[in-house]
Amino acid sequence: MSSNLSSCDRVMLLGFQLPTRISDTRAYCLSSHNSLISALKTTLSGLSICKICLKMEERKSKIVIFGGSGYIGKYLVKASVSLGHPTYVYTRPLNAQTSSSKSQLCKEFNHMGVTLVQGEFEHEQILAVIKEVDIVICALPYPQVMEQLKIIDAIKVAGNIKRFLPSDFGVEEDRVNPLPPFQAFLDKKRKIRREIEASEIPYTFISANCFGAYFFNYLVRPYDKNNHTIVYGNGDAKAVLNYEEDIAMYSIKAANDPRTCNRVVIYRPSKNIISQNDLISLWEQKSGNNFLKDFVSEEEIINLSQTLPSPQNIPVSILHSVFVRGDMMNFELGEDDLEASQLYPDYEYTSIDELLNIFLLHPLPPASAAFE
């Protein structure tokens, strides 16, 4: 822009319409002086806001993960670090009784640049770490779900948290109605959701459906040389099996996404929707093994859920919900629903077909869930 522009020229460039009669121009320019100043202030203000936004994008949010040494927690930690976030893991104090696997994992975290914060579930200790970060993610096992109430209290006191992701990562608990043992399991998670909403803490609820590697190991048992496999119900109900690495990456992205604030994000990529029968057939094609299917009827599963003591009745109730009733696919996603692969189309998730290829080359070790 030339430095010798008149005030009227500057007004025109800012989008104001000048009078067509030359005799009115001087009067117009004088009267538009205040409008010019106002427009300039608005423009400068906009530039300042843009600079602030750029600075926010440049400064990666700090993330603390409670339960970071657990099954899905370790994936979340690695995803957070890989996306460039200063990452903290809040863990119980390491001592002589700490398992060798957890000690080794914590060493790996240290080498990755993760800040390990050792502490108990006590208010002041939780509050201290929360004051240092922007985002809180919980990946606590079921027996510790209600400990999140202490985290919620600390978040309310701290007042600085931009997003909270509680320990969900399973079925969309507000849209299923399973057998009583699983219902009681989900009721605790629903209580946490309602408490978060009442506290007006910025949140994102994650419905990640099935952990793909975990359930493939559980259902097909590729590490077992036995050619028998158990099928729950008739094997035709559809479920959603997502690779844990993708669940973690989607979750870290969602935690930093303004579109997901105070929303539920459902992980239902089209290539990961599969039935037990199709999963077994796909593995037979890839591995060259043929399986004999042992079917467990719905009636048998319901009976087990009623007769097994707690918490042994929880896993069979989960199997009934997911693989007999097909609860993950029993509701349609509407226009207002947020689905992860649609939110982040540029992220190349691992299809169930590709996950089985991983198992062919480098089988992932089986894991077990804690219910007590």
From TrEMBL:
Keyword Nuclease attributed: no
Keyword annotations: NADP, Oxidoreductase
Any single GO BP term: lignan biosynthetic process
A GO molecular-function annotation: oxidoreductase activity
Domain of life: Eukaryota
Domain NmrA-like: 60-355
Cited Pfam families: NmrA
UniProt protein name: NmrA-like domain-containing protein
Organism of this sequence: Phaseolus coccineus
